[in-house]
């Protein structure tokens, strides 16, 4: 953090999106964004939001610029909520420490994502995690406070606040004070990689806030999922992760992705996020997993796939994908040589390519956010 | 029934397929075909199997001919099972009545369906219900015995044995003696019609026996559906049917179709029966149901839709369908004038027709099977 003579503090952070291995779907409190069930995730290190926040003393408006475009804050209330809460926490801390510096401040946020915001890749989660982490630095907040800031911006943002396997606990309390995302004790499993496949489609998507509400209000299966299925799966994921048991991990990841989409389908009216390309990818993974499970697909609230594999299997998996799905040559060229050198593209083996992937990215997982010690100003 | 001097008895029946309003999915006994949960259905009167059975005395092979083609019985064991059970019941009855006529007999079955067998429209259910009803006549069996014959041929066949709202009770006993399909007390709701839309697709389908087994063994949601959701829905359907409350009936029908597909998706590997055309139809129905529910879609183990509407709304619904989905002109021409006279096909209102329906049929519901008193021979 730097502070110059004019009372401007500034910090820059780089925060990756995260992908849930056991999905978050449904809120127990809409205002505080408290989830109905625990979830567990890993960061996708390559897909990041790089965010600089300046805290400026004196009268002025908060501003947020994402990828060069000014965000209209009056129609994006969540930014205002996060800034208000930040300043409330600051005042509280100052009163507590008997300080008197009740000066006015405002925030200027500049954020850049390295993936399409519209691709449905939880960009807002990375963005709000970045804002929360940066404000934590600026205001010297504790982790629980920072977690809360991220969460009220975008629920799953709190899972991007650290590396390793992150467990977002739903908590029991009404005020959300025990609802936190924590890194599990394990070292990061550095061998886990993911292949992200973006499948655009023209359908109008049911937003995840609206979708969660609909499922909570209408699905007769959700309650059973929340009470019985999810707690067991959280334990299974932790155990498989700490014992480095890829097959067990993969089985739970795929089952939970499918169950999340199942409760969406069980809603009234039914919600669908998977499209024909998603289903082709599921089939490709099923084939690739014969006779041994080496890949696990997972889909969030959209058609895009995230396929988790071990580093040693990245090339083999891409070889399997390009047989069934059309991939941009440029995306393949952009991959590190260690992954591309053993990809085999045997055109005679290709199935009729009906589905096209508009973007393919390979990333390590679980490295978490970076606080940039040298601010860019 | 007729019997000539050479010892040949013959009977002809016409049996409609049925569509479940609360779905059967999962067996508690694979051999006796006992279901894990109750289901409830109506017949689709227009789609029938017309079946003639001759019972011939003396040594000879059972034969089954469907739509002019001889069925290879060695690879279709269920026919043999039904014939064996029929003859066992006959012997039992004769022994009981102290009869001595333990003569050899065999069956000759000739069946004709008026809808494509491959369309996934539960043709085997109608076919086995026809065989069971005809053998009931020939051997003078009671309803429970006939029910059992139909069921061991094809589980849901037992729901085609009568008209009205038919409730197939799963029963509790291991021998299946309390597992029967019964007509509920109500008069048939003659105002209910259905529009069947056949959407072919090239995907290899997971057969329903295999699909049920997979869901039973792997879905963590199925148990909750069976124990908690289905019993309530059976009650709701009965109540809505007896009070002629279309909206309530429709709500349960759609929710249960979606939940059946949800537990399929919750299976490992996931099972999918709905395709893009099915989802277009769901959207069409959702639009049509604004501001008032006037149609209910339901899908069995395939992409084809059955949309239940009241007679007064048939034309309006077809008007809505042809806006979104391509329908054969011949199918429309084949409809009775009462339905076609007020169809409006406003080409300027049509959405871009991406999905084509290969067959459209409108049918009354719940009239049940007919025993033809004059055999055709």
Q: Can you put this structure into words, describing what you see?
A:
2 copies of one chain form a homodimer. In chain A, helix 1 runs antiparallel to helix 3 (143-153), helix 2 (123-139) runs antiparallel to helix 3 and helix 7 packs across helix 8. Chain A contains 10 helices and 17 strands. The first copy, chain A, is 35% helix and 25% strand. Chain A is globular and about 70 Å long. By secondary structure, chain A is an alpha+beta fold. The first copy, chain A, has 2 domains: 8-186, Ribosomal Protein S5, domain 2 (2-Layer Sandwich), CATH 3.30.230.10; 192-364, GHMP kinase, C-terminal domain (Alpha-Beta Plaits, 2-Layer Sandwich), CATH 3.30.70.890. In chain A, the strands form 4 sheets. In chain A, strands 1, 2, 5, 6, 7, 8, 9, 10 and 17 form a 9-stranded mixed beta sheet that branches. The longest helix of chain A is centred in the middle third of the chain and has 21 residues, at 222-242. In chain A, a hairpin with a 2-residue loop joins strand 6 and strand 7. The interface between A and B is medium-sized, with 26 and 26 residues.
């Amino acid at each position: 953090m730097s502070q110059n003579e004019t009372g401007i503090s500034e910090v820059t952070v780089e925060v990756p999106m995260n992908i849930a291995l056991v999905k978050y779907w449904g809120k127990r409190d809409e205002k505080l964004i408290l989830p109905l069930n625990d979830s567990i995730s890993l960061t996708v290190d390559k897909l990041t939001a790089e965010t600089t926040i300046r805290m400026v003393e004196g009268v002025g408006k908060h501003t947020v610029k994402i990828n060069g475009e000014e965000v209209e804050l009056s129609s994006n209330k969540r930014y205002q909520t996060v800034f208000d809460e930040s300043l409330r926490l600051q005042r509280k801390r100052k009163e507590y420490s008997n300080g008197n510096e009740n000066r006015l401040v405002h925030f200027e946020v500049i954020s850049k994502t390295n993936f399409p915001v519209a691709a449905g890749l939880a960009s807002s989660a990375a963005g709000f995690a970045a804002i929360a982490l940066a404000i934590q630095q600026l205001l010297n907040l504790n982790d629980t406070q920072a977690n809360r800031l991220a969460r009220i911006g975008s629920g799953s943002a709190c899972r991007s606040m650290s590396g390793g396997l992150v467990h977002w606990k739903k908590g029991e309390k009404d005020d959300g004070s025990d609802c936190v995302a924590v890194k599990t004790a394990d070292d990061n499993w550095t061998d886990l990689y993911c292949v992200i496949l973006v499948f655009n489609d023209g359908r109008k998507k049911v937003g995840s806030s609206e979708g969660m509400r609909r499922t909570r209000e209408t699905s007769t299966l959700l309650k059973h999922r929340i009470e019985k299925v999810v707690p067991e799966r959280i334990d299974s994921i932790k155990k498989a992760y700490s014992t480095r048991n890829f097959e067990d991990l993969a089985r739970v990841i795929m089952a939970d992705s499918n169950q999340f989409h199942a409760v969406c389908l069980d809603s009234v009216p039914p919600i669908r996020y998977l499209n024909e390309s998603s289903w082709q990818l599921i089939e490709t993974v099923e084939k690739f997993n014969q006779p041994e499970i080496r890949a696990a697909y997972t889909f969030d609230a959209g058609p895009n796939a995230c396929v988790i594999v071990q580093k040693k299997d990245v090339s083999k998996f891409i070889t399997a994908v390009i047989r069934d799905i059309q991939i941009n040559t440029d995306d393949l060229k952009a991959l590190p040589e260690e992954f591309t050198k053993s990809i085999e593209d045997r055109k005679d083996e290709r199935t009729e390519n009906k589905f096209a992937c508009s973007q393919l990215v390979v990333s390590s997982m679980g490295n978490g956010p970076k606080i940039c010690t040298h601010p860019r100003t």
